[in-house]
């Protein structure tokens, strides 16, 4: 029993040291701080009507410039209405390379981006969660019938599922010593 306690304490200290080291360095490759998932009136909404099949998951890059998938892709029908996931102010609406993009800035230095979206709102417009902000367009890395949803917290991409409440809880397992 004492060995089990020592093992659990060691694992806990390791987690604290690793997490603390990542935030103390301030390096671009360290993971961004994670905000608590909003609840109640602050709860986020999916940008599309149900169902919400995720066709490609979030894949955090190893560093700020490494490969990864900085959001989630959702199955969508062409011209399907796109909804504001949260209250905010439209900070960008226009083309980026080969696709129409829409970004909404929210309190807490959070920016949500959806693409491809043919916008029905303009920069500076205040939007409410659930409000129609456009329709699914075409272009970008998503094949036709796809909507990409990205979230940046303090400039770093985080999984949108943190805000949508669909991220499974992490489970710490004890280490096995030989």
UniProtKB/TrEMBL annotation:
Pfam families: Peptidase_M23 (PF01551)
GO molecular function, one term: metalloendopeptidase activity
InterPro entries assigned to the protein according to its UniProt record, in alphabetical order: Cell_wall_metabolism_enzyme (IPR050570), Dup_hybrid_motif (IPR011055), M23ase_b-sheet_dom (IPR016047)
UniProt keywords, alphabetically: Signal
Signal peptide location: 1-26
Every M23ase beta-sheet core domain range: 68-160
Stated name of the protein: M23 family metallopeptidase
